[in-house]
Design goal:
- By secondary structure, the chain is of the alpha+beta class.
- It folds into 2 domains: 1-31; 36-144, Alpha-Beta Plaits.
- Helices cover 49% and strands 20% of the residues.
- The chain has helices at residues 3-30, 49-70, 102-106, 113-119, 123-135, and strands at residues 36-44, 73-79, 93-99, 137-144.
- Strands 2-3-1-4 form a 4-stranded antiparallel sheet.
- Helix 2 crosses helix 5 (123-135).
Length: 152
Amino acid sequence: MTDQSRIRLCAAIIAGLFLASLPLAAQQAAAPDDSYTVEYYYKVRWGFADEFIRLFRKNHFPILQKEMEKGRIVSVTGVAPRYHMTEVDRWDYRVTIVFRSAAAAAAPSAVSAAEQRQLYPDQATFAREEQRRFEILLAHWDLPLTRLALSP
């Protein structure tokens, strides 16, 4: 076999492998995203928003990070409105959590009691601060989202 024949054979094999992988890639691209998104809204008593988010970052966010490490949660993001709203419609913080799936969202926390004690060795302080975080909360609601197909 000549060098040119070998090159053609290798090129044909590579092209064949590439073409054979296209249906698999198309199937993977077309596979539905099974993630499940929930937005959590927090409305805090006037004057206590900074305290609330400080306690949230200290006592709740590390648990969410642990859930991400374990694969139950894909991502966690937070936002606050730039400007004020009417009191009826007001919310101070929105935390969006993308769960791996609806089943993962409905499942109990993946963080064990032992892991929580590791994160918060002073359980009395943790309990007191979590109590305070909810004392200064006026309202809290969860909004599970449904993905809409917009393309015809």
